[in-house]
Design brief:
Layout: H1 5-65
């Protein structure tokens, strides 16, 4: 039993379309995963930024409540000639 040329071409075309479809699906999944990672990174960065800003604000408040350290006065030296 021999298959006709058109049947072989149709089978090849179906096979090629299936490979292309699988490739597109992998590409779609990759892009979706990358977008999820990008969103997770952005969320994490925003959270860390909020924590840093809160810490800096607390440190500024704490520094404002502490008296400034007294400057040490150095005695003047007389000029020697």
């Amino acid at each position: 039993m021999t298959t006709s040329l058109s049947e072989r071409m149709t089978a090849a075309k179906r096979s090629a379309e299936m490979v292309r479809s699988q490739s597109q699906q992998r590409h779609h999944n990759l892009m979706r995963d990358q977008e999820r990672e990008r969103e997770a990174t952005a969320k994490k960065t925003a959270h860390l930024r909020e924590l840093r800003l809160a810490r800096e604000a607390a440190e500024r408040e704490e520094a404002a409540l502490k008296p400034a350290p007294a400057k040490r006065v150095r005695p003047r030296r007389s000029k020697q000639t």
